[in-house]
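Person: I have long wanted to understand how a fold can be written as tokens. Underneath my words sits a plain record pairing an amino acid chain with its backbone structure tokens. Those tokens are not coordinates but codes from a learned vocabulary of shapes. I should like you to check that the lines agree and flag anything odd. The protein I mean follows directly.
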Amino acid sequence: MTETDSAVPAPPPDFLPLSLPGGFMALNGPFFGWRRDDGLRLGLVIEERHTNPAKVSHGGILMSLARLQLAAGAAVGTGLDHLPRMMALSFDFLAPAPVGAWVEGETEVLHTTRNLVFLRGLLSIDGQPVLRASGVGRRGEAGAVALENLFGGPPPAANLAPSPEDRASGFRRLRMPGLFNASLAPLYARLEDQDRSFIKGFRVSGRHDDGRGYCHPGVVLSVADMHTGFASLVYDDLRSFVPSISLNFDLIDRAQVGEWVELRTNFVNTAEPYTVADVVVSAGQGEAQRPLMRGNGFMRIAPSLGVEFNRSRIFED
């Protein structure tokens, strides 16, 4: 254990490490869980590697924990032996999660049908809410994660190597401020429409893997969160950090490891100090391109955080 590792606070008693396969969870864990017959709570200690440019937890890692909390809580709350696949997700960011904080989740099952489960969740620090989530999960998904495997011991070793420099034509390597953003690299982008339209892309690699050969949903959520902010920054040539307040997503399909994933924005509207943008995520290229996810974000323009961006500084090359 390194000196940095030893400084990370321990989770509360009774929380055990989760067995979560794939590169994305291995890169950002460990995640912990506490299970009783009437419920399940998950948690995570926020470390520097989870931070955004403002030096607090990136929305992507919080959404990843909340999504897992909703799915696992749904399984326990409805007696399923597997985690439902989340098809629709909404997140409201209520307060920042600083480095060293223990973030703990809970799930409430609101309604079930033969195929769907409707959920509400909360992430908190010392009883104070930091993120509110809601979602709709689909039961009976082929290949779904078995609930009993969450506490099944260490997962198989994951391939954490970044993808090679393999980008679609016209894309340049994107500058990645913040340690959590950098863990998703390399990401690429290009500008269109007189440099006001922002298109992002990446090649799914082992560090994005969910353990079953697909891009982990947490990766897509994280990159989409980043994309809505960058799209607003580029469109209106904003010069400050744009943290998310609320994000909503419909998850349609999954990308396989090795596929090219692309994110586009069709709508941006800014009325300072707020801005809104949509995002459409697709896999493949040309005529073979297919939709993966659609969403929208409501964000705050935050010059007071002292994190400066502008259109001319978003590329590395």
User: Anything to note?
Assistant: Confidence is low (pLDDT under 50) at residues 1-5. The first strand starts at residue 16 and ends at 17. Residues 172-313 form a domain with the Thiol Ester Dehydrase; Chain A fold (CATH 3.10.129.10).
